[in-house]
Amino acid sequence: MRTFIYHRKHPTNQADLDESVKQGIIPFFLMPPQLVKAADYQLVAVMESPMKDEELLIRQAFIVTNSIENNWWEYPDPCVTPLAGPCRSTSVGDIIMCGDKAFQVEMAGLTDVSLAFFVPKGSAVS
Question: In the predicted model, is pLDDT for residue 44 greater than 90?
Answer without folding.
Answer: yes
